[in-house]
Amino acid sequence: MSDIAALRELAERASSIAHKLSGNLGIVSMRLPTQHEIKLAYADAAFQSPGDKVAVQMRVTRALCAKAIKAWSISPRMLVESASGEDADDVLPVSAAAAELFFDQYPEEFTALSDVLFEELARRAKAQEAAKKN
Questions:
Q1: Which of 49, 100, 104, 120 meets the CB 3.0–4.6 Å disulfide criterion with 55?
Q2: Is the pLDDT of residue 90 over 90?
């Protein structure tokens, strides 16, 4: 493994968090977005919803949550009850489109995921700021 690959892997592990979903939905593993990713999400949302601060915040939250998900135990049947076939109970591959569908089907889980994500971002920013002062 090259030095940069090793550093990238360490950074990924350091920025990973897990959240247990309610009921039997399982666990979602997320990667905290970088400051650059957050700025890009705000720029994109501001372009899509110029002058509408509420819409910008909603778009940013949803985009960052969708991008943050790296692993989960969600099956197609959990998203659409009528899903059928051999793979209806297999784990659905993580994608932005699948995350959007999950958020639409489970809005309370989206709220919980976004709370966890932004609380952890705030906690880490506070810790970094405290470390700078020392």
A1: 49
A2: no
